[in-house]
Amino acid sequence: MAGLAISSGKSSSRCGPLRRVRMPHSLSEIRSWAATCDVAKAAEALGISKSHLYELIKREQVPFRVVAFGSRYRVITASLIQYLEATRGGG
Hints:
36% of the residues lie in helices and 13% in strands.
């Protein structure tokens, strides 16, 4: 699924510059991913920020499997899919 571009080019003094918004991935797209994915991609699939997902991982509050390789993390795609199917209704 392509990202949604917000392209007015103007910035509000309250909000700062507008940024590209990434829509969450569809389950059918996620099913085509490799066996593991990086935290940024998993966060996009969940519709949350990468930093928020890192914080949940550090607190051990993620409802799917994450594997640490040194200081890097990989999300087990099958586990992420199972979680998303349960929360999105299998779509």
